[in-house]
Specification:
Nuclear Transport Factor 2, Chain: A; 333 residues; Rna Polymerase Sigma Factor, Chain: A; 7 strands; alpha+beta
């Protein structure tokens, strides 16, 4: 039996133990909320509540389930509003390349990306990492937003985190029968949705993805549409939250980049990773020799080619990804 935690005795120890759960909790809260920044807020609130109430924890063995109970309650409170985060593809069919962007719908309308460094462990079983990546895909996180919050929690805890039904029932203060019923309904909802679009096989070779990303960066910075087309799947999708417009297929993607998106010519890119796969930060020219943040692009791949380019035009994401606040001549490229 582990020692009982009393008051603030051993606060250094409990703080370190709480911090050790941050990435896993962030992954859970991100799947619940669909926003990296909101997930960070939820986890911070969870850890603060846990630290303040450390005297209620009878044994260290119970720490993990206790933290997830707090995190679940925090997320459920945050999800009381009616709005559901989505992807542009969820709102309507693809548009023509010369269509208007549509209204700026704000950041809260969209599923947001999250940096891999905030949710994936540094070292773990390769199969577990691959599964974690799959359940961080934008399409999967967007699909979760179709579920009522408690169904969402049940599905994530049971299907992603592999908790037992009895553990989930205890955490959510309900019965095993209710957990199993909620899981069945959640599975039926997800089965009715298209989760194959933009899917990256879990067994994809990291070196292959890095090579593909390097070719994409080179093509984009040169604004070489011939090279870019060679990287795209025939049904590749291109979106730009906060705007609802999205286009599909190499011809329309190129037409958009040479039309409305032509101001991206001369940009510089910095590689990163998001939602279990490759990503880039795109910097637009602001002055001679200076580039400033414009978009974080989640690059989805399948079969050795690019299946999705999802541009998030939210410069504040750059800090969340640890990307430079600006690029100067010596940093570019």
């Amino acid at each position: 039996m582990c020692p009982v935690l009393t008051g603030r005795q051993g606060t250094d120890g409990i703080e370190l133990e709480l911090e050790a759960h941050r990435r896993a909790l962030t992954g859970y809260c991100y799947r619940m909320l669909g926003s990296g920044s909101e997930a960070e807020d939820a986890v911070q609130e969870t850890l603060v509540r846990a630290w303040r109430s450390a005297d209620r924890l009878r044994t260290r063995e119970a720490l993990k389930s206790w933290l997830y109970r707090i995190a679940s309650n925090v997320c459920l409170d945050m999800l009381q509003g009616p709005q559901r985060r989505a992807q542009p593809m969820d709102l309507g069919p693809a548009s023509a390349a010369d269509s208007a962007l549509g209204p700026d719908m704000g950041e809260h309308a969209w599923v947001q990306p999250i940096a891999d460094a905030r949710v994936l462990p540094d070292a773990a079983d390769p199969a577990a990492i691959a599964e974690g990546r799959e359940t961080l895909r934008l399409a999967f996180v967007a699909a979760l937003q179709h579920l009522p919050p408690r169904q969402r929690a049940v599905l994530i805890l049971r299907e992603v985190l592999r908790w037992q039904a009895s553990e989930v029932a205890e955490l959510l203060d309900t019965s095993v029968a209710s957990v199993n019923s909620a899981l069945q309904r959640a599975r039926a909802t997800l089965a009715s949705l298209d989760l194959d679009s933009g899917a990256a096989p879990a067994a994809v070779d990291d070196d292959e993805q890095r090579a593909l990303l390097a070719r994409y960066v080179a093509a984009f910075e040169a604004y070489d549409m011939t090279s870019l087309v060679a990287l795209l799947k025939d049904d590749a999708r291109f979106s730009m939250p906060p705007f609802p417009l999205w286009v599909q297929g190499p011809d329309d993607i190129v037409a958009f980049m040479l039309g409305t998106g032509a101001h991206c010519r001369g940009s510089r890119l910095v590689a990163t990773s998001a939602n279990g796969g490759p990503a880039v930060g795109v910097y637009h020219a602001a002055a001679p020799g200076t580039w400033e943040p414009w978009a974080v692009v989640v690059v989805e791949t399948s079969g050795g080619r690019i299946s999705g380019l999802h541009h998030f035009l939210f410069p504040k994401l750059f800090a969340e990804f640890g990307l430079p606040a600006r690029l100067q001549d010596e940093q570019a490229g």
